[in-house]
Amino acid sequence: MTAKKTSKKLSQLSRGRPPTLRPNRPALSAKATRNLIRSHHQLLKARAQALEAGDDELVRKLDEQIEANGGLESYQLASKIGQSLERGGDTSKLLIEWINSRLRELKGSPFKLRVLEVGALSTKNACSLNPFLDVTRIDLHSQEPGIQQQDFMERPLPAGHEDQFHLISLSLVLNYVPNATGRGEMLKRCVKFLTDVFPSGCPMISFKPLLFLVLPAPCVTNSRYLTEEKLQQIMSSIGFSLERSKMTSKLIYQLWEYTAVPDKKLFKKELINPGRTRNNFAIVLNDNPSPSASKT
User: Fold this and answer.
1) Could you tell me where in the chain the CATH 3.40.50.150 domains are found?
2) pLDDT of residue 13
3) Where does S-adenosyl-L-methionine bind (predicted)?
4) Can you name the CATH fold of 90-294?
5) Residue 182 assigned to a binding site
6) What pLDDT was estimated at residue 158?
7) SS3 of 32-45
């Protein structure tokens, strides 16, 4: 496998995910849910490394192991349970809380904010049920009507403002991309889908496009290659300004405003926090065009 082919595969989210099976769906405890998600990420990480090394035999074996554990659908089931209302895990509730002041400007008008929810698991979360939002939902493996089965990295680039969105939600999506360069490409691609244009007469005059980003907290608190400060530097280089942030023991929630004033800096995978117990989560920004974007 050549380096060019490997790079192309790793840049596309769908190709970083293994084939799926339809497992039986017994009730999952909170502990079982966490273990399933953790195991799936570990296997996916190993698969990405094997793919990058061109080890097709190891990729095949890891695919078999992932399928034996239930594949993508089982992972999605665990994620969906983790985000269920009973467990208070709907991350979009915080998003609505953060943008409520903006949404109040739309009260009494026919206009709505256009939202793209990447990695959507439900049509009944707080974001979907809000009357001021027009939500487009996509996921690699749609679990219900109302969610389009699509890889964001393969979604055609907007032809005009009407194909763009005022807000993009990446809730526990970026961490699923199997390599650091692919994560950078996803963030850069988000910019192409954002707009601050509204129809004539819309009361939202000073609105700036938004990106809602949710990651597992260890991605920035226990990584060898990424910290909150470096994440801010990376996002600033693309043109984003941090508006809101919240950290819990499990997750980091951030709301980024697109200012369209990028620094255009490049970021390599550089060791910041050495340590045997740390993880390898990283985001790389380079000046090469995304293979996915170049096809559209």
Assistant:
1) 90-294
2) 55
3) 119, 139
4) Rossmann fold (3.40.50)
5) no
6) 96
7) HHHHHHHHHHHHHH
